[in-house]
Amino acid sequence: MLLAIDVGNTNTVLGLFEGDRLVDSFRIKTDPRSTADEMMLTFRGLLGNTGITGVSMCSTVPAVLHEMRAMLATYYGEFPRIIVEPGVKTGVQVLTDNPKEVGADRIVNTLAAHHLYGGPCVVVDFGTSTNLDVVSANGDFLGGALAPGIQISLDALSARAAQLRKVELVRPRSVIGKNTVEALQSGALYGFAGQVDGLVDRIKSEVAGVGDVIATGGLAEIVVPESRTITAHRPELTLIGLALVFAKNMAQP
Known about the structure:
Blueprint: E1 2-7, E2 11-18, E3 21-29, H1 36-47, E4 54-59, H2 62-75, E5 81-83, H3 104-117, E6 121-126, E7 129-135, E8 141-148, H4 150-160, H5 180-206, E9 213-216, H6 220-223, E10 232-233, H7 237-250
Parallel strand pairs: 1-4, 4-5, 6-9, 9-10
Antiparallel strand pairs: 1-2, 2-3, 6-7, 7-8
Helix pairs in contact: 1-2, 3-7
């Protein structure tokens, strides 16, 4: 069974694959202070005696990547392991000014999106930041747009405005909030949906033939129903990409 690990700034997502089928997944908080041994205790608690036969991982957090690499070498050393970084075969050409600065998760999402939907398409990843990544007809990573994420924006607002507070991200009764909580919910939900729609419209004006717009990330399910441009919601997109990368690198040349 393949263990796929997606380490993000806020959450780490684990996925278990039997062949190309995702059979289970887990979401835990990312803690840069965790040691390799502490990580293993968490993994064992979640995975139990699952028969792991390989590991595929990507990380956007250098401190966690160091400890995770040590944990995998110590506790999963007998299994083939792929960590997505420069030099690992992904099949994705990164057509940007500096390919090395593109996060591994964005490359993995590009691979999965093109595999599932073809191209050109757009991946919208709702995480700590909101990433809109453009995938060419050939599956190349063309670049994209980065914006502050929903939760980090609300946290900053409550920290800087004395009379505003943190709120639950749910759909308010109407766009016109009748109290502070509903006003904040409206601004966050409909504001970010409008931001995504506006950026997708501009991307479509520059890239001919864009078809699907695929949403992923922990906060996607909140925004997807309010967006007019998002056509698909795939929470497991990054995990699928990690499984595809593993298969590419394990295949005989």
